[in-house]
Write a structure and sequence with these properties.
Blueprint: E1 7-12, E2 17-23, E3 28-32, H1 39-48, E4 51-56, H2 68-75, E5 78-82, E6 92-94, E7 99-102, E8 105-111, E9 120-126, E10 129-136, E11 139-140, E12 143-144, H3 152-169, E13 177-180, E14 198-199, H4 200-206, H5 215-224, H6 233-242, E15 255-256, H7 258-266, E16 270-273, H8 277-282, E17 289-290, H9 297-304, E18 311-314, H10 321-330, E19 338-340, E20 356-359, H11 361-366, E21 371-374, H12 378-383, E22 390-391, E23 409-412, H13 417-428, E24 434-437, H14 441-448
Parallel strand pairs: 3-4, 4-5, 5-6, 10-13, 15-19, 16-17, 16-18, 18-19, 20-24, 21-22, 21-23, 23-24
Antiparallel strand pairs: 1-2, 2-3, 7-8, 8-9, 9-10, 11-12, 13-14
Helix pairs in contact: 3-5, 9-10
Length: about 450
């Protein structure tokens, strides 16, 4: 009698990744592509009454710190992973066609390079019955993993490898479930498709990259879909290779007085204000960087904060210190220098800065600014932006400040959080008279009567 398949996806919407927990039916479980924040994975394992015995990786992750070593050290899990040279911790290195028995199931490695040179997909069998395929960063819903994360020299060769990997996956039966790791929200994926699982047949029929004619056309289409990606991708892979520090189940953010925060800032610490954009606009510590605590907090912290400088946090009552600490750990900030105890109410330093104002589209329509700066990604800007807007992606703003003319500037994004981050960067650089749009292009054109501009 077939074993019931209990496969639980644990989704990180901010990083756009799916970790999979498979109940092996004998009191043990396998976890595939675990992130460092294992709270939800452990909760699901406890709910099922299973011990995590295996941690499996499809590739050397660049977008988050892996939780595989953490599981090895704290749960005594066996780590199965592609061969990428000597690691800083014990793994069982697998190659294409290697098979591992996991209780009633068999995991068979399928070599699918492209997203990374060593990438493996895994076929899941029960006996001779194929149950599905874990495709990691190879085949995704409506797209395929980007190939430009290793080096510029390998981008095209890996794209060609990705083409052949997808063709290899297309030899599987149409009804084979496809379980990718990356999905919407991940910078490893170019697709905006919100669905996270699929089938071989569905991808064969609908995935744009599988509709193109031949390898060269595929390579051109894949490379054309790639936007920018966080620069922390360039350092996390090596951390995962060597083996990240083992953190345990709890993290702590030390409580700091206002005086201690000022002393740390004088010594080069960076202050990250995670409160809502409206709270930051109402008053913030001069020089603070606004990164609102929300699902994508980890991405923007990793992209904008300097990993070589201590980070001090300011949060609002009700915002979780645990969530902040674990989000930071996901992208390589293992320990935060501390947080201002009592939040902004405890700040006794220099006068709170208020050079940033949050405004709505109706006020902007009545009193248009001299400069409109849209800090969304280039592909978002091309889909639709307001007339006369300039586009400088948020992550590039610090290096492009001289491109902005003087005058009152309105900063905008899709909703307001990224725009407030940009406004904080401008304010820290000495700009004044900064407005942030509470909303996005749709609200702007609705209030002004203009039409969105699209770019082909």
């Amino acid at each position: 009698m077939p074993t019931e398949l209990t496969l639980v996806p644990v989704i990180d919407e901010g990083l756009g990744n799916s970790t999979y927990l498979l109940d092996l039916g004998d009191g043990r479980a396998m976890v595939l592509d675990p992130e460092r924040d294992l709270r939800q994975v452990r909760a699901e394992a406890a709910r099922l009454g299973v011990r995590i015995a295996y941690a499996v990786e499809t590739h050397l992750h660049a977008d988050f710190i892996s939780g595989a070593r953490e599981l090895a050290e704290t749960e005594d899990a066996t780590v199965l992973a592609p061969e990428v040279g000597p690691r800083g911790f014990d793994v069982i290195a697998l190659g294409g066609a290697d098979r591992v028995e996991l209780g009633p199931f068999t995991l068979e490695a399928l070599f699918t390079p492209g997203h990374s040179p060593e990438h493996l997909s895994y076929l899941l069998y029960e006996g001779d019955r194929l149950l599905g395929v874990f495709t990691g960063g190879s085949l995704m819903v409506g797209t395929a993993g980007r190939t430009d994360l290793v080096s510029p020299e390998q981008t095209v060769p890996l794209a060609r490898a990705q083409y052949h990997s997808l063709q290899r996956l297309m030899t599987l039966p149409d009804d084979t479930p496809v379980w990718p790791t990356h999905g919407a929200g991940s910078f490893c994926s170019s697709s905006l498709n919100a669905e996270r699982v699929s089938t071989i047949g569905r991808e064969r029929a609908t995935n744009p990259l599988l509709q193109v004619d031949g390898e060269d056309t595929f390579v051109n289409a894949l490379l054309a879909s790639l936007g920018t990606f966080p620069d922390y991708f360039l350092r996390l892979g090596e951390i995962n290779h060597k083996g990240p520090a083992v953190l345990g189940e709890t993290l702590d953010i030390p409580k700091l007085t206002s005086t201690q925060v000022q002393e740390l800032m004088a010594d080069g610490a960076q202050l990250v204000d995670v409160r809502a954009a409206a709270d930051f606009a109402a008053g913030h510590v001069p020089g603070a960087l606004s990164i609102t605590l929300r699902p994508v907090f980890a991405t923007w912290l990793g992209w904008l904060a300097d990993p070589n400088r201590p980070v001090v946090i300011i949060r609002a009552p009700g915002q979780s210190a645990d969530d902040i600490a674990w989000d930071a750990a996901k992208v390589g900030f293992d320990s935060l220098a501390g947080e201002l105890a009592g939040g902004m109410n405890a700040w006794t330093g220099a006068t709170e800065s208020r050079e940033v104002r949050l405004t709505d589209a109706n006020r902007i329509a009545a009193d248009p600014p001299a400069i409109v700066l849209d800090v969304r990604q280039g592909n978002e800007f091309a889909i639709g932006h307001v007339p006369a807007a300039s586009n400088i992606e948020l992550a590039a703003l610090s290096g492009a400040l001289t491109q902005l003319p003087t005058g009152r500037v309105l900063v905008m994004c899709g909703h307001g959080e990224r725009a407030m981050t940009a406004a904080a960067i401008l304010a820290a650089a000495g700009r004044t008279d900064i407005q942030v749009l509470d909303g996005g292009p749709v609200e702007y054109v609705r209030a002004t009567g203009a039409d969105l501009v699209t770019e082909s």
